From TrEMBL:
Keyword Cell division appears in the UniProt entry: no
Pfam family, one: Response_reg
UniProtKB keywords: Phosphoprotein
GO biological process: phosphorelay signal transduction system
Annotated signal peptide: none
4-aspartylphosphate modifications at: D77
Protein name as catalogued: Response regulator
Domain of life: Bacteria
Residue ranges constituting the Response regulatory domain according to the UniProt record: 27-142
Gene3D superfamilies per UniProt: 3.40.50.2300
PROSITE patterns in alphabetical order: RESPONSE_REGULATORY
Length: 329
């Protein structure tokens, strides 16, 4: 059960996702020489109350910040005046090895992605941003990777570093290998775009099913012990359901994300217990809650789409590296 720390009812708070020092907020450093991009990133990310966003217009401005402050995620443009984004990622990871890095690029070529991953990046974002929600979802996914310390991400970086070293030594991949990696990059971007698609199950609330279906989701109502709950992407249960704790425990470390709806009459003890369990919460039963629920579900589905797509991208990088070491016939 993957969860985030943001709580939207009855007040907003957050818990640092893997940060040292016990801070309540997760910290994001955004580096871009275009003021409009910095403004967009700040406005989008600061919608999440548990994110603290710092902006820099160049790598030279960012490096003193990285030397003095802890950051959880670095989001940087590839093409910067002076030191470039790839070099900044490498230096940032040297200063803060647990930092997650995401590169902004206008075009995801095999060379740029290999270089970014070799420097220590774990993802990239295409500019201009066609779907602004992707930026928030990728930052959230980066925070989850930082907390989980997923081995596959570090393996992908190591494979990319080996591929970059082979290319730098004069070896080259066959044209078919370049074409395969380019095709996988396009498939990755499409998979992220389609990440909003997914199955949602609701326990004990027909009205919630209606709200989600009206918003365009594939949502069904299921009983709390239905085995199908383990095969959907998101499970939604209300605090008013007496079995919500049992359900949450059963789905712990299982595939679905679990979202807890808290009505205005929700018991404070339930909310505190949900916070302790680090469950996603969203207020419901009000007009504001009816708007927040579909948006929260969209973000959960998009994060899952990003994570699935990244697994395929890591495999594509490994295949590319192997094609350099052992060229295709």
């Amino acid at each position: 059960m993957r969860i985030s720390a943001a709580m939207e009812f009855p007040f907003e708070t957050g818990e640092g996702e893997g940060g040292e020092g016990g801070t309540l907020a997760s910290t994001v450093l955004v580096v871009d020489d275009e003021p409009v991009v910095l403004d967009i990133c700040a406005r989008l990310l600061e919608r999440d109350a548990d994110l603290v966003v710092t902006l820099a217009a160049s790598a030279e401005d960012a490096l003193p910040l990285l030397a003095e402050q802890r950051f959880d995620v670095l989001v940087t443009d590839k093409n910067l005046p002076g030191m470039g984004g790839v070099e900044l990622i490498a230096e940032a990871r040297r200063l803060q090895p647990s930092l997650e890095a995401v590169m902004i690029t206008g075009y995801a070529s095999s060379e740029s992605v290999v270089a970014a991953f070799a420097a220590g990046a774990s993802d990239y974002i295409l500019k201009p941003f066609d779907d602004l929600r992707v930026l928030r979802a990728k930052v959230r996914a980066a925070l989850e990777r930082r907390t989980a310390g997923l081995l596959v991400r570090e393996q992908a970086r190591e494979v990319a570093r080996e591929a970059a070293a082979l290319l730098a030594s004069g070896q080259d991949a066959p044209e078919r290998a370049y074409e395969a990696l380019e095709a996988e990059l396009r498939a990755y971007e499409e998979a992220v775009r389609l990440g909003l698609n997914g199955r949602v199950a609701v326990v004990g609330s027909a009205s919630t099913v209606t709200v989600l279906q009206d918003a365009g989701f594939e949502a069904v109502e299921l009983p709390p012990y239905a085995p199908e709950l383990e095969r959907v992407d998101v499970v939604i249960v209300e605090t008013g359901d007496p079995q919500w704790r049992t359900l949450a425990e059963r789905l712990q470390r299982r595939p679905p994300d679990v979202l807890l709806l808290a009505s205005p009459q929700a018991d404070l003890g339930d909310l505190l217990e949900a916070i302790t369990l680090r469950m996603d919460l969203v207020g419901f039963g009000t007009s504001q809650g009816a708007v927040a629920l579909p948006e929260k579900v969209r973000m959960l589905l998009l994060r899952r789409g990003v994570q699935r797509a990244q697994d395929r991208l890591a495999a594509a990088l490994a295949a590319f590296r192997q094609s350099i070491a052992a060229p295709l016939p």
